[in-house]
């Protein structure tokens, strides 16, 4: 189970009703309509905050993401090792994952969120743009994300397991 799935389960356990989906909007990881369905949103917001999630309310929708502390804790945990053979189909993503892990000394949580979001959505077209995004980050001397590299490797591995 990947990190986005784990976090999704944590959030669902705290929501009394409503949907929870991966956000298609880049600034957040999840979206939910729970504020439109409950009276006591403050209690739920507090529970989510205590669990390490930041919530932004927009009208009757809630946009959720992990706090920097939650990302930091995940980056310190071991993600199972992955052994991959480079192929034409995975070479660009494998390159991006290696670059993230090689150069990702300081965490870039926005970049990590984007990789988590794209892998959770299984958005291969969005992920194909990742090498260019990383090149731009490097030109601007912005940090990369070691955690994003681990998440990307895990995604590539799971995708290849399903095709075998």
Any chance you could write out the topology, listing elements then pairs?
Layout: H1 3-14, E1 20-22, E2 30-32, H2 34-37, H3 41-50, E3 53-58, E4 61-66, H4 68-76, H5 91-103, H6 109-121, H7 124-128, H8 130-139, H9 146-163
Antiparallel strand pairs: 1-2, 2-4, 3-4
Helix pairs in contact: 5-9, 6-9
What is the overall silhouette?
A: elongated
Strand arrangement, major sheet: 1-2-4-3
The whole-number mean of residue pLDDT values reads: 89
Beta-strand percent range: 5-15%
How widely separated are the two ends?
Answer: 19 Å
Number of helices: 9
Radius of gyration: 17 Å
- N-to-C series of helices and strands: HEEHHEEHHHHHH
Number of extended strands = 4
Largest sheet: 4 strands, antiparallel
Helix-and-strand structural type: alpha+beta
Helix content: 55-70%
Quaternary assembly: single chain
Uncertain runs = none
Task: Please supply descriptive tags for the structure shown above.
single chain; 164 residues; alpha+beta; 4-stranded antiparallel β-sheet; 4 strands; 57% helix; 11% strand
């Amino acid at each position: 189970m990947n990190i986005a799935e784990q976090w999704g389960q944590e959030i669902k356990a705290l929501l009394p009703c409503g949907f929870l989906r991966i956000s298609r909007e880049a600034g957040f990881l999840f979206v939910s309509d729970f504020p439109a369905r409950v009276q006591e949103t403050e209690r739920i917001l507090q529970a989510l905050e205590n669990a390490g999630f930041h919530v932004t309310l927009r009208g009757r929708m809630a946009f959720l993401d992990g706090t920097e502390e939650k990302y930091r804790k995940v980056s310190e945990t071991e993600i199972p090792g992955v052994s991959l053979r480079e192929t034409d189909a995975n070479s660009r993503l494998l390159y991006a994952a290696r670059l993230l892990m090689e150069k990702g000394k300081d965490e870039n949580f926005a970049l990590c969120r984007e990789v988590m979001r794209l892998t959770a959505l299984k958005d291969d077209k969005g992920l194909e743009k990742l090498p260019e995004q990383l090149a731009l980050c490097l030109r601007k001397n912005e940090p990369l994300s070691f955690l994003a590299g681990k998440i990307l490797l895990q995604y590539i591995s799971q995708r290849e397991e399903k095709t075998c």
